[in-house]
Specification:
Helix content of chain A: over 70%
Strand order of the largest sheet of chain B: 1-2
Shape of chain A: globular
Distance between the termini of chain A: 15 Å
Order of helices and strands of chain A: HHHHHHHHHHHHHHHH
Largest sheet of chain B: 2 strands, antiparallel
Helix content of chain B: 55-70%
Strand content of chain B: under 5%
Number of strands of chain B: 2
Structural class of chain A: mainly alpha
Oligomer: heterodimer
Number of helices of chain A: 16
Structural class of chain B: mainly alpha
Strand content of chain A: under 5%
Shape of chain B: globular
């Protein structure tokens, strides 16, 4: 019998971890001589106080939904895919190739093609570490870290030496043609008469991210493959005994995970920058880890955590603009969330278990 | 390539291999004891900042080194708390530590120095100066041997010699002392060590502390010897290269020396030449940057010898009741 009821495991523990992370972050803000309450007010105002703020918050959240789902799917098979950064980088390459090399008449045609390319490139970048893990037993954490660096070097080479337009100094591709321009939330909400900021980068990818959440939920809890993934994650010997082939499941899980991370590129590369630049992922691959941990690997949790981090990102940018608090404060918060929800989970869990045990004894 | 530029490249190899070597040996202690550590990068970064900051404020590089080591050991303690005491996921703890260091160093640097997340440039006694070994000046004009001794072996900072001395010392501690035997044993079969009446927790904490110490020296070297001050993200992936070198070296001290020298050479060549012409084929600098990682993946794939990590690595030890 579990000591902690499920609702406490799903809600209370992440909440406690979040409160701890928030308190420590407030401590950091105090220590550098700023006012935490004013900082929170400014963040809420900047990120949620206008449709412009919401547009950025949702734009960031879209990135984090994709990378968070990527980490979560792999976690279900007890694989730690830390390579979302590299997979999303390669996904960007796929998007750029599709958008630049084919004459697209309309985004409705370009988007599925770009998504397919992004997913394919991301999956390929996850395939080699997956194969090494499945066949050779090389630790997937190490290989995916290595592939992040290899991917960054590859993209650096391609942008500097191959894809850069003649005469341009900037290591970036040329701008994508107008036929690949994705509708923004301003355009979409405008159809139903809701006013939304024109300058914010949130676009139709957000809706696709929501769809991805539903699909991942269905995959994990409503399909045979999802069952096999979870079975493998719970116990490999039991899964093997049940006739599940670990090599196949590890490969499939990582391909799906890599494809999800790669699909982030439709948001940041196709939807926002509309060209491929160096370091286009900007750490979103790593934030996926925090998002998956906080969201307890459930797509709905991932969505909530992604919006929270989107809020932190946009709010943090506002703070950096108006106060002496640098943007890197968000990295600290991100680190604390990963620390408390991932590594120090037992520190929160054990006292909570004690409380529930005493409550139960009293009740009995 | 002529003799002078060869010496220059090798000299720069030694400088660039030093932080890799220290971090690699740090990881070796930790992972041999069964604690995976992908937080080498973060520990080095925090040490780099606190050593540079302390050296700036006090003007003493010695105090800077101490502060750097203390910061790194603090993070090592956090890693120990998460992965030994609370039996958490060691990999996730390492990731968290890397981000914690990346964020905190810039936030604090901005608060203390207001220079966009860097420390002021270190001058004079706030920085490690080069040591001239005995007879370096007199032997200077001897052909071949003179330049090798004067330009390559002599003239580094004290931390370089410390790093190289750490290789035999690490070998001796791990393979010739009782502590080393126990340390390796808790990485392979902690239950056996526990049965023998030795504290698994204590031994693992000791290993993690040594890891923090060595990462601290590595970070201090970066900010106060290799460069003159801290800049944002100045470790630039060196912690991960050290991790790659550790696998490349199959968790052995002498191999660690060769692996880090090889990766240091790659960095030195990439730094000096933007692209290399090998008989008509141009090797882009990006390939040189990626080569340590590619080589490590090849090693991990088991095509060239097999790298087997310590058996109990990554798993927390739960004492039998």
């Amino acid at each position: 019998m579990d000591v902690i009821p499920r609702w406490a495991d799903v809600i209370l523990i992440p909440l406690f971890s979040l409160v701890l992370a928030a308190l420590l972050s407030a401590g950091v803000i105090l220590a550098i001589g700023e006012d935490p309450v004013a900082a929170v007010k400014m963040m809420v105002n900047g990120a949620l106080g206008s449709t412009y703020g919401w547009g950025y918050t949702l734009y960031y959240a879209t990135n984090f939904v994709f990378t968070g789902l990527a980490v979560a799917v792999a976690f279900h098979a007890r694989l730690f895919n830390i390579g979302g950064e590299g997979q999303a980088t390669l996904g960007g390459l796929g998007v750029a190739l599709v958008c630049l090399d084919l004459p697209w008449p309309h985004w409705i045609l370009a988007l599925p093609a770009a998504m397919a390319a992004a997913g394919l490139f991301g999956a390929v970048w996850a395939a080699i570490p997956a194969w090494l893990q499945a066949r050779r037993g090389s630790h997937i954490v190490i290989t995916t870290i290595m592939f992040n660096f290899i991917g960054a070097a590859l993209l650096n080479y391609l942008l500097v030496n191959v894809m850069r337009p003649d005469g341009a100094m900037d290591p970036a591709t040329r701008k994508f043609p107008p036929g690949t321009h994705l509708p923004t939330l301003h355009d979409i909400l405008g159809l139903v008469g809701v006013p939304f900021s024109k300058a914010a980068p949130a676009n139709i990818s957000f809706l696709i991210a929501l769809g991805a959440c539903v699909l991942v939920w269905a995959l994990i809890w409503r399909t045979r493959l999802g069952f096999q993934i979870r079975a493998l994650g719970h116990s490999e010997p039991a899964a093997v005994y049940a006739g599940i082939r670990p090599v196949r499941i590890v490969m499939l899980t990582m391909l799906i995970s890599g494809a999800l991370a790669g699909c982030m590129a439709i948001n940041n590369v196709m939807g926002e920058a509309e060209r491929l630049v160096l370091n286009s992922v900007e750490g979103a691959g790593f934030i996926g880890i925090a998002v998956a941990l906080m969201g307890r690997n459930h797509p709905f949790g991932v969505l909530l955590a992604a919006i929270l981090f989107g809020f932190l990102y946009q709010g943090g940018a506002e703070l950096a603009l108006w106060t002496n608090i640098p943007r890197e404060l968000i990295v600290v918060i991100q680190a604390l969330v990963i620390l408390f929800t991932g590594a120090l989970d037992n520190m929160v869990r054990i006292p909570l278990e004690r409380i529930f045990l005493t409550l139960r004894k009293r009740g009995a | 390539m002529d003799f002078v530029s060869l010496i220059a490249v090798l000299d720069s190899t030694i400088r660039l291999a030093t932080p890799l070597l220290l971090a690699c040996l740090a990881g070796l202690f930790s992972e041999r004891a069964g604690i995976f550590d992908i937080g080498l990068e973060g520990k080095m970064l925090s040490a780099a900042f606190f050593s540079a900051a302390t050296a700036t404020i006090t003007g003493s590089v010695g105090l800077g080194l101490l502060a750097g080591v203390a910061a790194s050991m603090g993070l090592a303690g956090l890693h120990g708390l998460a992965s030994i005491t609370f039996r958490g996921n060691q990999l996730i703890s390492g990731v968290a530590i890397n981000f914690l260091a990346a964020g905190l160093t810039v936030v604090i640097a901005q608060d203390w120095f207001q220079q966009g997340g860097r420390t002021p440039s270190l001058l004079g006694a706030a920085r490690f100066g080069p040591l001239t070994l005995p007879f370096a000046q007199t032997l200077r004009d001897v052909p071949v041997l003179g330049p090798v001794y004067h330009d390559l072996i002599s003239g580094h900072t004290v931390l370089v010699y410390v790093a190289f001395a750490m290789v035999p010392l690490t070998w001796w501690v791990l393979f010739r002392t009782r502590f080393g035997l126990r340390l390796r044993a808790v990485g392979e079969a902690p239950e056996a060590v526990d049965t023998a009446g030795v504290s698994v927790t204590g031994t693992r904490y000791a290993a993690v502390a040594i890891c923090g110490l060595l990462c601290g020296i590595a970070g201090a070297y970066l900010a106060t010897a290799l460069q003159a001050g801290f800049v944002k993200d100045m470790t630039a992936g060196r912690g991960y290269i050290a991790l790659a070198a550790l696998i490349f070296a199959k968790w052995r001290p002498w191999y660690a020396l060769w692996a880090t020298l090889l990766f240091g050479l790659l960095q030195a060549v990439a730094l000096r030449y933007q692209s290399i012409d090998l008989g008509g084929v141009t090797v882009p600098v990006q390939l040189m940057d990626a080569l340590p990682y590619i080589l490590t993946v090849v090693i991990l794939a088991g095509f060239v010898g097999r790298a087997v990590p310590p058996r109990a690595g990554g798993t927390p030890y739960v004492k039998e009741k």
